[in-house]
Design a protein that fits this description.
By secondary structure, the protein is mainly β. It has one helix spanning 2-18; strands at residues 66-75, 81-82, 91-92, 96-104, 110-111, 118-121, 127-130, 136-141, 145-153, 156-157, 161-166.
Length: 167
């Protein structure tokens, strides 16, 4: 029994020596100090470098040796579009065919040619023809019928596309 009492007694002696019997006074935390933050500096947003849209412009000025006309797109009267158009299919009156002409030189490279592209239409009364782009025309069907379309550049004649307008 003595050993047990001694251990217990030793525990009593050690605890007061560690200061466990008297709680320490809490240390006050430092008062918050306002630290001035730097004034934000507005940095200008850099202008984005414009990305070229589509293909690079053609700069080849060799004369055209081949001229190809195609229907680029059909613009429907309801505001929708059709691409990859089969030129043999009829077009509804009121819709617009956008014709596109591509010139190639003797090396089969795309060229702007040496003269302007001239567009020709067999019966212009069937359609409203507009557009001032060098190589495109918009052809809106106004009446039922067929309209042959072709172009000439540098003395070269393109293929002929027949637009058939139906109701």
């Amino acid at each position: 029994m003595r050993k047990s009492w001694f251990l217990l007694s030793g525990a009593l002696i050690v605890l007061p020596a560690c200061g466990a019997s008297t709680p320490a006074a809490p240390t006050p935390s430092p008062s918050p100090v306002a630290v001035p933050s730097p004034t934000p500096v507005v940095t200008p947003v850099p202008s984005p470098t414009p990305e070229p849209e589509g293909e690079a412009p053609v700069t080849n000025t060799n004369p055209a040796t081949r001229l190809t006309m195609r229907i680029f797109v059909i613009e429907h009267a309801d505001g929708t579009y059709s691409g990859n158009v089969n030129p043999t299919l009829p077009i509804t009156v009121g819709d617009t065919a956008r014709l596109d002409v591509t010139a190639k030189d003797i090396d089969n490279r795309e060229t702007v040619g040496r003269s302007e592209v001239q567009f020709f239409f067999s019966d212009p009364g069937l359609a409203r023809i507009s557009g001032n782009h060098t190589n495109q025309r918009r052809v809106q069907g106004l009446a039922v019928g067929s309209l042959e379309c072709w172009a000439v550049q540098d003395g070269i004649t393109s293929n002929t596309i027949t637009l058939t307008f139906v109701r």
